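Appendix B, Record 12. Input sequence as logged:
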Amino acid sequence: MKVVGITGGIGSGKSIICSVIEKIGFPVFYSDKEAKEILVSDKDVIKELTSLIGVELYKDGVFHKEVLANKIFNDPSIKEKVNHIIHPKVREKFSQWVNLQKSSIVFNEAAILFETGMYKNYDATVLVTAPMPIRINRAVKRDHTTKEAVENRIKNQWTDEDKVKLANFIIVNDDLTLVIPQLEKVLLSLDN
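Logged structural output:
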């Protein structure tokens, strides 16, 4: 079984590519979705994050992501500590998931695959790219937010140029280039 990481910056369309991969018949583990689930369900994580951030993070038994986002945005060391709490749990869930799969290739969708160094643990990596204006427009529509808010999030991510250097495969998702033929080439290469 080959384990493949798939990533891309905000608005690149990596989730769309992953849904196509699933339709073709390959399983995809969504790290970001799993992390969100862990944030609200794992008692140890809740306890550690409350200790780190404060009781306002889970005020009235409800997770307040804006509190976490504000703390992380204002203090990069908090972001690193939060990642050290959540990422091992996500990796553990991913390992359990992989052990249940029967496919010749499995995919792990993760927004910060290269930034965390986790790309080194995969047989291959796929980077989904798109021009910046398209990425911003997609994220604004999807998240019902402002252009400025998306641009601020993008500033905190690695650039595509940095990621391209580490990726084994690149899929251009620019609304002009057909993605299915690109994906087929990737899958053919992986299946050999």
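The two ends are 11 Å apart (CA to CA).
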